[in-house]
Structure formats: C-alpha cells, structure tokens
Amino acid sequence: MSMRIVLLGAPGSGKGTQGEKLVDHFGIPKISTGDALRAAVKAGTELGLKAKAAMDAGRLVDNSIVNGIVKARLGEPDARKGFILDGFPRNAAQADTLAEMLADLGQPSVDKAVHLKVDDEEIVRRLLDRAEKEGRADDKEAVIRHRIDVYNAETAPLLDFYGQQGKVVAVEGIGTVDEIFERILKSLGA
C-alpha cells in the first residue's frame, strides 16, 4: 500500500517513535530533514557541501538548500512508493514547495497529514523528564515553552493548509506507544 504522510507534532509528541513504527508497518522510508541533511553532508554532494559550510559557520541552512536535499531524497527509488516526512514541511510555504517537488518528480501528492495532538503542559512535562534522564541541561522550562510556541505558530497554518484539502487526521498522542500507533493506523484506514 503506498502512503505519502506528513507527520506533524510538537517536540516531545512522539513523532520520532511513531514515525519508525510507520516505517516498519508500511515498508516506506521516513525522511527527516535532519537525517537527509547529515546524509548529504556525509556523501559530499554539492548541496551537502553548501549545507556543511552553513552548519560549520553556525548558521541555519538556507531554505533552498534544504528544499534541494529533500527533493533529491524524494527522488530516490525507495521513496517512489511512499514516504513519511518528519520535520518538513515546517510552514505553508514549504508545503507549497513540497507539492511542486512531488509534481516535478511525477509523484502523487501527500495523502495525509497526521497530527499527533498532545497538550502543551504534557509536552513540557515530557521534555523536562527527558532532559533530566538524558542530562540535557539546555532543556529548561522557559526554553521548552519557547520551542512549543514557535512550533504552534509555524504549524497552525500547516494544519489549515492540509485541512482545506481534507488531509489532516488528528490523533490523540497520549497513551502507550502501541495504543497511539493503533489510533494512527485506524485514522489512515490501514
């Protein structure tokens, strides 16, 4: 079954975990912008070298570079029958770009945007808990709340973008990993 999924959820919503389970279930790759960037840098591609220069200088990698790397990854054979996108698109402009990329590659558009819904206070609790377990001193409550605010501000328009196309499936992100996964599969009709 081919599935083209955009995974949406705040930091700490369980996107990474659920994304991996979806990979195993559908046998399609999970494409995370961070992973794709690191792979391009490691492979020494032209875009990878540009990305490395930006990262080494402590700058954010330019949108056009990120877009190029994502497009190259979407063009690889394993992504032809579907993919799970994590961390891209981050906003409505990137969602437009993604639609253009898929059209350029002769691929169908995104099937579903799966929104893992977790209450902000629960996210704060989870991230503080994770910070303590992993010894991440930078994850202070104020920093976490700021990350959630940024996420909410960027993602709300994305939910509208895919919502207008009838592609958003909202899934309650509370419960065991398997309970949440079952909800996702059910919402996808899989």
Under CATH, the homologous superfamily of the domain at 3-25 and 112-185 reads P-loop containing nucleotide triphosphate hydrolases
CATH architecture of the domain at 3-25 and 112-185: 3-Layer(aba) Sandwich
Could you tell me how far the N terminus lies from the C terminus, measured between alpha carbons in angstroms?
9 Å
CATH class of the domain at 3-25 and 112-185: Alpha Beta
Write down the CATH topology of the domain at 3-25 and 112-185.
Rossmann fold
Counting helices, strands and paired strands, the structural category is alpha/beta
Helix and strand succession? EHEHHHEHEHHEH
Mind describing the biggest β-sheet?
5 strands, parallel
Q: What topology, given as strand order, has the largest sheet? A: 2-3-1-4-5
Mean of residue pLDDT values: 91
- Total DSSP E strands: 5
Binding site for AMP: 33, 38, 59-61, 87-90, 94, 136, 147
Family: Belongs to the adenylate kinase family.
Subunit structure: Monomer.
Keywords: ATP-binding, Cytoplasm, Kinase, Nucleotide biosynthesis, Nucleotide-binding, Transferase
What can you see in these coordinates?
The protein has a domain at 3-25 and 112-185: 3-Layer(aba) Sandwich (Rossmann fold). The termini are close together. It is globular, with a radius of gyration of 17 Å. The chain has a 5-stranded parallel sheet, with helices on both faces. The protein has helices at residues 15-26, 33-43, 46-56, 63-74, 92-104, 120-134, 141-163, 177-188, and strands at residues 3-8, 30-32, 82-86, 112-117, 168-172. With 190 residues, it is an alpha/beta fold. It contains 8 helices and 5 strands, in the order E-H-E-H-H-H-E-H-E-H-H-E-H.
